[in-house]
Amino acid sequence: MSQRYNRRAGILLHPTSLPGRFGIGCLGSQAFHFVDFLQAAGQSLWQICPLGPTGFGDSPYQCFSAFAGNPLLIDPSNLHQMKLLKNKQLDSTPDFPTGRVDYGPVIEWKHGILREAYDAYCAKPAPGLADEFALFKRENAGWLDDFTLFMALKDAHSGAPWPRWERELVQRDPEALKNARGKFKHNIERSAFCQFLFFRQWMTLKRYANEREIQIIGDLPIFVAHDSADVWANQDIFKLDDAGNPAVMAGVPPDYFSKTGQLWGNPLYDWDKLAARKFDWWIERCSTLLKLVDIVRVDHFRGFEACWEVPAGEETAVVGRWVKTPGEALFTALREALGELPVIAEDLGLITQEVDALREQFRFPGMKVLQFAFGGKPHHGYLPHNYEPNCVVYTGTHDNDTALGWYLSTNEKTREAARRYLWVDGSNIAWDLIHAALISVAETAIIPMQDVLGLGNDARMNIPGQAGGNWTWRMFPGQANERLAATLFEQTMLSNRIPRLAREYDEDDAFDEAELREKLKE
Domain ranges in the chain? Predict the structure, then answer.
């Protein structure tokens, strides 16, 4: 296949940001409508953040499991169709805000609805559904059994982190775990049922997208949360002290953006033990994720060459050391077990030659963010004329300002550099950046939905280092409309990023826009 057929475009939007009446975006009709919008707009990719169950701070990058799904994303309307909820239960949905997620009330209501749905299932389990649920439990027992027990124990301990539980539970004494499974059987089964519902709904949505030639880009954070089923159930592959707390913590050292660095607090892996086990946990993790998504964005790719290791007890990331990571051996093992890896490497920040060499060895495309490009130097790697095709260009990410917010908040020197480079007056900067991304030589262009909508920083998704108030933005109903799809379609088509059309037309064919649009609808 020639290079021009590899060009494609997509939208970054986490499902929690979808509109709808249930207080948080979910996997119901609005998700399917968004897929229809993507198809109408000529997009072939939908990028999301991690899908796991979120904890304190509501961040999808700090989940209770790297394998499980977030029950908050389950669509109650579908549960009504399955006869697990009645009309009056949906009619009693609170009057949630429409433009943001108010997590406290949403969590309380959603968990209550899911309990009622499980009670309805227990009272009268449909034979086909019961068989489907039993099959799901058997196929996912490798992670599901530990996760559901972890959540039941966490609930029994009023949400306390697992190192604060009874010593026999912290150390996973077999007899203690057996007793706990018996004592909390109902809660364990309910948790498993919620996972079954999530996976069932997500896979239906994914099939719908794939049938319309839209692939899902998922996200794989290198680290997992300390207070997670992953660490509790696999303590031997993490660097922990005798009490189960991190002996060393993950982060990044001081740099231009932070004088004290970033202390994330996640436990670091014992890579020697993982290597001795032939990276089995990583293989299982990636295998599970690749069932849910088509392409994986590997977060903090830099950490697969070396990790910044901060001793326990430090309050900043100033004190630490770089510790080598067996990234080559890991990716080789993953490729041998899973085949060629559809990976995007998040290689932002201060990247060394060793990190570049690791990425290039496996031909993983790196990331280019246009907001970082306008530093006044024509050889800057994020300026489009310096790209190589094997990369993914973004106007911004979930951790950045929106394009408009960036332009309004940055200094005048940077704004002037952007205007001069893009040859614009800055009055429509979001779409100026979108245009620059789409016409670049980068094989893939991803645009946050906030930029497609031209929104300011009130629509920003996440501010790193800020404890609360993140991950709340939602679209309003009707914002992803036909007019917007037509505008995005035109820009995507003109930049030759609609694979279906590129396959069917040769370079010498006469250009007929109306005919191209009709061809896409067939």
Answer: 234-365
